[in-house]
Structures are given as structure tokens and as C-alpha cells.
Specification:
287 residues, mainly alpha, 12 helices, globular
């Protein structure tokens, strides 16, 4: 792999690691980045790459929140299945959390499996990205103004019901259809509208990403096949490693940031970026 291509891959990994967790759309940024700095790979490989690179970001969530998502162990087991024996190693509260997460995954999973190729062909372009960046940027501003001074009704992951989990999943469905929406952005906006606190909304979004991205990556890998060239393997692994390292930093930053600030800054960023992209398109700077 040439040095220039390696630098491009590192750039893609950095962008993925930053934008996957901030509610500003990783897919949208990857599409825009590819319009400006494209990798010298086949369209089929890039379609797979822009999804599977997210596995690096996911591993960062698993590492940082392992104690909160691993459902086995006797230490700090608040709700063991049984008082003694093997059941004492099972954390039922975490299993319940995973069941609710799976409920949130259903809408996007069904649409993704059935219509993935069609949606990609129809909406994966800078125009859709720009429009959705702006629309959900406005949504963040409206929701934060609406919630200003109000006390969140859901302040713990345990308070998320199956009904609430389903409706959060319906918001995630919007992101599954329209790139530029942001999976994290859609779920956070939906959660805030439904009375969830910022911290819980962010954490739930992180955990929700694990099955969603593993599923999406598996789907792309199956469609592409496992016959990678040496160069393609290097590109994919480099992108994932960079995304993993950057994600560790960004997740820590975001969790600290939202304890003292709201999401308005991300809303304004989305609006400004979307407007710039539309302007570039009008001026003929984007294909």
C-alpha cells in the first residue's frame, strides 16, 4: 500500500472515530470525505469498508463500558438470577437491558436486511446528507429549547421500558434510511423527546450501536465475501485500528461534555456543514 493511500485510510479512521459517537453522522461525513479524498479501491470494497470500519469504533465501547454490558459475574451483581449456584453468576438486570436494546434494533434491522442495496443507491449522496444534517441540526435546537429547565423522566438505564426502547428504535430507523441523519443523533433526539436524560440517552446510544454495527458489518461482509487482497486487508485493518483509538478519546470527551452542556453545539455544526455542502453542490464543487 502506497504512503498516500495509507494516509487516506488513517484520515478515514479518524473521521469515523470522531463522527460515530458525536451526533453529527459518521456515514454522512464518510460520504462527503469520499467525494473529496477517495480511496483507490473498487466501489464494492468501499461500500463494505465504510460500514465494517465501524467495528473498530464498537470495540472502544465494549472496552470502556465492559462492566456495564457484560451479563456474567458474581462481583457487583445487583440482581443475580439465583442466590447460589450458577445463577449467582448471571446478572439479570444486564440481560434485561440487552433485551430492551434488541427491541430497539428490530425496526432498523428489518429495513436494513430487506432494502440495504436499494436505500444505498437512492440516498447515499451529498444532497441527502446535507438535507438530513440540516433537518436534524434544527431538531436538536428545538428539542433542547423544549427541554430547557425540565427534569428528565428517565434518569437510569433501568428506567427504559420495552415500549420506550421500541420508539427509540423507530427514531434509529430514520438514520438507517437517510445518511446524514446520524444513528446516534436520531436515537438521542428521540430519547430526549421521550423524556430520557442526556447521559442515559448517550449511554443507551452507545450500547445500541453494538448489535446494530455488528449486524450491519456482518451483512456487508457476507455480500462482499472474504476474498480480500493484501492491500484491501491492510486498508480495512488500519481503518479499524485508527477508528478504535480515536473512539476511546471521543467517547470519554462526550460523556464529560454532556454532564455540563447540552447538544446545541452539534445542532449548529450540522446546520452549518449542511449549508456548506449544499452551497458546494450548487457551485459545482461536488459531483
Amino acid at each position: 500500500m502506497e504512503m498516500m493511500e495509507l494516509l487516506k485510510v488513517v484520515l478515514f479512521g479518524i473521521v469515523e472515530g470522531i463522527t460515530e459517537w458525536l451526533p453529527i453522522s459518521s456515514t454522512g461525513h464518510m460520504i462527503l470525505l469520499n467525494e473529496v479524498v477517495s480511496l483507490h479501491v473498487s466501489d464494492e470494497f468501499y461500500s463494505m469498508f465504510q460500514v465494517v470500519i465501524q467495528l473498530g469504533a464498537i470495540l472502544a465501547v465494549v472496552l470502556l463500558f465492559f462492566k456495564q454490558i457484560w451479563p456474567f459475574g458474581r462481583k457487583n451483581n445487583e440482581e443475580p438470577l439465583t442466590a447460589h449456584g450458577a445463577g449467582a453468576w448471571i446478572k439479570t438486570d444486564i440481560f434485561k437491558l440487552w433485551f430492551r436494546i434488541l427491541v430497539s434494533c428490530v425496526p432498523a434491522a428489518v429495513v436494513g436486511i430487506l432494502f440495504d442495496d436499494i436505500l444505498e443507491e437512492m440516498f447515499y449522496n451529498y444532497r441527502t446528507v446535507a438535507i438530513m444534517l440540516i433537518l436534524f441540526g434544527v431538531a436538536f435546537l428545538i428539542v433542547e429549547n423544549r427541554n430547557h429547565g425540565k427534569k428528565a423522566q428517565v434518569t437510569s438505564l433501568k428506567d427504559i421500558t420495552y415500549r420506550l426502547a421500541f420508539w427509540i428504535g423507530m427514531f434509529q430507523l430514520i438514520a438507517a434510511i437517510f445518511p446524514g441523519t446520524s444513528r446516534s443523533g436520531a436515537t438521542i433526539v428521540g430519547a430526549l423527546l421521550l423524556g430520557v436524560s442526556r447521559t442515559v440517552a448517550a449511554e443507551y446510544t452507545f450500547f445500541l450501536a453494538i448489535p446494530v454495527m455488528f449486524g450491519a458489518s456482518l451483512l456487508k461482509l457476507v455480500k462482499f465475501g472474504l476474498a480480500f487482497s493484501a492491500a484491501e486487508t491492510a486498508i480495512l485493518l488500519t481503518g479499524m485500528v485508527v477508528a478504535f483509538v480515536v473512539s476511546l478519546i471521543v467517547i470519554r470527551f462526550l460523556m464529560g461534555y454532556i454532564k455540563k452542556h447540552d447538544f446545541k453545539v452539534f445542532g449548529w455544526y450540522r446546520i452549518i456543514l449542511g449549508a456548506i455542502v449544499l452551497l458546494c453542490g450548487v457551485c459545482g464543487l461536488l459531483p
